[in-house]
Specification:
Blueprint (H helix, E strand, L loop, with lengths): L6 E10 L5 E8 L5 H6 L8 E8 L5 E7 L4 E3 L3 E4 L2 E6 L2 E9 L10 E10 L7 E2 L6 E18 L2 E14 L3 H4 E11 L2 E10 L4 E8 L5 E4 L3 E5 L8 E5 L4 E9 L3 E10 L2 E11 H4 L2 H6 L6 E2 L1
Parallel strand pairs: 4-22
Antiparallel strand pairs: 1-2, 1-12, 2-3, 3-4, 5-6, 6-7, 7-8, 8-9, 9-11, 10-11, 11-12, 13-14, 13-21, 14-15, 15-16, 17-18, 19-20, 20-21
């Protein structure tokens, strides 16, 4: 269970085999970005749950992040139900059943988003990592490498590709622990490389490079050179790591005032890779102007 003031999320990203489509899905309990959770005093995390769904591509792009309350959220050992949608383990696969409405700024008409996504882990990792000295924030790459099947009825799209699943949890608000971070993951031949670095709230920096072998076992490796990326439209600073410190943006998937998600091309450990990268500024997130804007992208239904 998630303690008061705390949070937990399960994060999935995927890229189609032809690289024409992508997606991210995040199931939140105690949504770290929720202005409603913050205003409530963060005493009941289950009352601030949501399924964030982002579909990318020229056809059928959608964005969903509707928060729901405790009466509409059920957490069991292998299932998380949030409103009419659910994430559930079925033997050795993760199934996400989606029944939502999308969100577009300035457009009150919300389109239906319905379908099923199945993630098949190709490797599993049971080791979690602590991100701060006091042990209040944790991260685990559950399935560093996976195959994914996307079957959407609305929008009508279907594809298969490569994917990734991890989870974060904490016992205090995320902005209490961090000022900012950069993260990326990439399939490197038969292995997976994950870079996690940032600045904690106390001003200390952290950085690590993990390589997961074919069995899912993580090993710390030497950090590649910093590879700066161009600022986003919102002026967000972002960076990754790559051989010779060089990487290029394929597509900026998410561009918000405090968060950016990017598909990146580079070489890492001598191999050509396509990486999924994210940068977040928690200093920006807590800015009153940003807090005022958030409900327009994150409606709440109870």
């Amino acid at each position: 269970m998630v303690p008061p003031q705390g949070y937990r999320w399960w994060y999935i990203d995927a890229l189609s085999d032809d690289e024409r489509y992508g997606l991210t899905i995040i199931g939140f309990i105690g949504s770290v970005f929720s202005p409603y959770y913050k205003k409530s005093g963060r005493n009941i995390p289950l009352d601030h749950s949501c399924l964030n769904i982002a579909l990318y591509g020229r056809k059928g792009a959608r964005w969903v992040m509707t928060e729901r309350g405790v009466a509409d959220t059920t957490q069991q050992r292998d299932t998380l139900s949030i409103g009419p949608s659910a994430m559930r383990w079925d033997k050795d696969r993760l199934i996400i059943d989606i029944e939502e409405r999308d969100i577009r700024l300035g457009i009150p008409w919300r389109r239906r988003v319905k379908g099923q996504i199945i993630l098949h882990p190709e490797m599993l990792n049971h080791r979690a990592f602590t991100l701060d000295p006091k042990g209040r924030h944790h991260w685990q790459a559950i399935a560093p490498r996976a195959r994914i099947e996307v079957k959407m009825d609305a929008p009508e799209i279907a594809w298969k590709g490569s994917g990734y699943l991890d989870s974060n949890h904490g016992s205090e608000p995320i902005e209490n622990g961090f000022k900012s971070w950069h993260w990326s993951r990439a399939h490197v031949a038969k292995q997976v490389a994950v870079i996690y670095e940032g600045t904690r709230r106390d001003g200390s920096d952290f950085a690590s490079a993990l390589r997961f072998d074919a069995s899912g076992t993580p090993q710390e490796d030497e950090l590649p050179l910093v590879a700066p990326l161009p600022l986003t439209w919102w002026g967000m600073s972002r960076q990754t790591r790559a051989d010779r410190g060089h990487a290029s943006v394929i597509k900026t998937w998410e561009d918000s005032p405090f968060y950016a998600r990017t598909a990146v091309a580079a070489r890492m450990y001598g191999e050509p890779i396509t990486a999924i990268q994210e940068s977040i500024s928690l200093n920006r997130l807590v800015n009153p102007v940003i807090q005022f804007m958030l409900p327009y992208k994150m409606p709440r239904e109870t």
